[in-house]
Write a structure and sequence with these properties.
By secondary structure, the protein is mainly β. The protein has two domains: about 130 residues, Lipocalin (Beta Barrel); about 80 residues. It has one helix and 17 strands. Strands 1-9-11-12-13-14-15-16-17 form a nine-stranded mixed barrel.
């Protein structure tokens, strides 16, 4: 049995910008969905095709905002080897469709801080450049594994989730490592007591999680 430990920065998302959006574009004859998760300081944009499932790219980092633009300084860019981009400017428009659902438990940015095995706890140095993050916001989630120094990208996946009576369920809408995983449903159980929470995963392929760390939580794949 393996256990995953995460650090969590719990942010109270109170402004209008802390939401989830989506819009579509046409690329090479395909309808591409742009999913945007943005809290009050961090933004992730992911591009994918819903049918047939195809992951295109994901990129994100801390942002600043003016009246017209959102400037994002990337911590990761899955397309970095092709485009070399470390920054982007977004222009919000009427095309952006608000997807946010009512706030749910577990909302925040999570950083993998180690794992527990039958031999005991194994900690990970979260101050290093190699990160594995999970971003939970307004009913949607995404995990990303990356290196902030080298811009290496190791994988990502995401979709929407629900929490109810100690049950947490992920529904995968995109997955960089294996498009055939799209549509999978991953049920978990969790409890949270103050700054400490425990999630027991009933299904485990591809649920790593990101950085920031004031509170600690354990995630336990069974």
């Amino acid at each position: 049995m393996r256990f995953y430990l995460f650090s969590l920065l719990f942010l109270v998302l109170i402004n209008l910008h802390a939401q989830v959006y989506s819009y579509e574009t046409k690329q090479n004859g395909k309808t591409v969905t742009h999913r945007i998760l943005m809290d009050d300081s961090y933004l992730v944009e992911t591009q994918y095709v819903a049918q047939p499932p195809e992951f295109i790219l994901t990129r994100g980092g801390f942002y600043t905002q003016t009246e017209k633009d959102i400037l994002v300084d990337f911590e990761f860019n899955s397309n970095f080897e092709k485009d070399g981009l470390k920054q982007m400017k977004l222009h919000s428009s009427k095309k952006w469709k608000l997807l946010s659902t009512p706030p749910q438990e577990l909302k925040g940015k999570w950083l993998m801080a180690g794992r527990m095995t039958d031999q005991g706890e194994r900690r990970r140095d979260t101050s290093g450049p190699r990160k594995t993050m999970k971003f939970l916001l307004d009913g949607f989630f995404q995990w990303i594994a990356f290196n902030t120094d080298t811009f290496q990208f190791f994988g990502s996946g995401g979709g929407y989730y629900t929490t109810e009576a100690g049950n947490y369920t992920e529904h995968i809408e995109y997955f960089s490592r294996d498009n055939s995983r799209v549509g999978a449903r991953l049920p978990f159980q969790y409890n949270s007591k103050g700054p400490i929470g425990i999630i027991k995963a009933l299904a485990v392929k591809a649920t790593p999680c990101m950085k920031f760390g004031a509170k600690e939580t354990s995630v336990h794949p069974l």
